[in-house]
Amino acid sequence: MVLDLQQAPEFTYFTLENPHRLVVDLANTDDSLDLSNVENDGDLISRVRYSSPKNTRASRVVVELNRKADPTLFAMTPTAPYGHRLVIDLNDINAPQRSQVVIDERNNHRDRDIIIAIDAGHGGEDPGSIGPAGTYEKHITLSIAKKLEARVNAERGMRAVMTRKGDYYISPNRRPELARQKKADLLVSIHADAFSQPEPRGGSVWVLSTGRADTELGRWMEKTERHSELLGGAAEVITDKASERYLAETILGLSMDHSMATSYDLGNKVVEEMKQVTSMHKRVPQAASLAVLTSPDIPSILVEVGFISNPQEEKNLNWAKHRQRLADSMFSAVKRYFKQIPPDGTLWASERDENRTHRVRSGESLSLLAQRYNVKVSSIKKANNMTTDVVQIGQLLNIPST
């Protein structure tokens, strides 16, 4: 929710319960604006109205909510074509959960596509950084995101989903939630860097810092309704809340460890590919506390495509061919990674399993290989037309998927 103002806003706010409300007091304003026609395309906000403030030189805006929300309010300075603005971001912390469906669908659909969530940074009233020639970061990121989307969708076994497809604002905390709702296997957030001086240049890749990861793990564990998302059907048969929390915490910790390791490995591949098409400000993935990277169960990276504050890089980013090269480099890295380690249940995983081979080394036996690849000894023998359990060093074996 965004309020357009004639001057920098002076505001205070607080929340109320029974029913849930957000109350915002705006100094040096009046209630002449009609709030009855405020557009609302969701089910979190019931209505927006005025109330009587304590200060007669202020106006009080009341946002009536259908359930509890965590508000964040911040002012934005004028950026053409917008003037002063107050952004009201409502984090729908008790929204109807969909992740249980996500888990079930992932497990029940074999040979599914690998889903890549592509996040174009900033948007709408948030232009991001602005280059010396007036280039908006939000336009550059959306253009590259669309080019990456096209490459992903053209690849058999992959599918792209976008957190935003146009010029509108989405809060950073909302973006990983959208990726989860879309059942993403990876989130790639695209940005352009900036500095107060024009000299810095080059791209970089960012992953979640360990400190922020620990904080997010704690936040998830405090939301007991999210335990069932992690446990799936097991949550329905666990009656001991302490056991449920312990199991959920264990699963969440393992999930976050896997996501962070995947993010770093993939980030390295993105750096390798990007340095073929642009200079790199950082040669290895960097760690930071960034809201868009905080999903504990989805590997996530943030790609800075260059310094828009550098005149030459701003010029490059305005060149469509350069934006295509950047998108191509990200796609190549993502494809390389998932070809090596495709998610379970995907088409690529199925094709990899069908073509698995193993060259026998000293000390290995059929029973050892069957245990390693989680298949039966009889299945390996059948796939290789073997009549005995004897294998030879250097022998090339076909490893079946089951």
- End-to-end Cα distance: 53 Å
Indicate the low-confidence ranges by residue numbers.
97-108, 220-240
Shape: elongated
H-E string: EEEEEEEHEHEHEEHHHEEHHHEHHE
List the helices and strands and how they pair.
Blueprint: E1 2-5, E2 11-16, E3 21-27, E4 45-51, E5 58-65, E6 70-76, E7 84-91, H1 99-108, E8 114-120, H2 137-153, E9 158-162, H3 174-181, E10 186-193, E11 204-208, H4 210-222, H5 227-231, H6 241-274, E12 286-288, E13 300-307, H7 311-317, H8 320-340, H9 347-354, E14 357-359, H10 366-373, H11 377-383, E15 396-398
Give an account of the 3D structure:
- By secondary structure, the chain is of the alpha/beta class.
- It folds into three domains: 2-91, Immunoglobulin-like (Sandwich), CATH 2.60.40; 99-347, Aminopeptidase, CATH 3.40.630.40; 356-398, Roll (Membrane-bound Lytic Murein Transglycosylase D, Chain A).
- The strands form four sheets. It has a six-stranded mixed beta sheet with strand order 9-8-10-13-11-12, sandwiched between helices. The chain has a four-stranded antiparallel beta sheet with strand order 2-3-5-4, with no helix packed on it.
- Helices cover 34% and strands 22% of the residues.
- It has eleven helices and 15 strands.
- It is elongated.
- The longest helix has 34 residues, at 241-274.
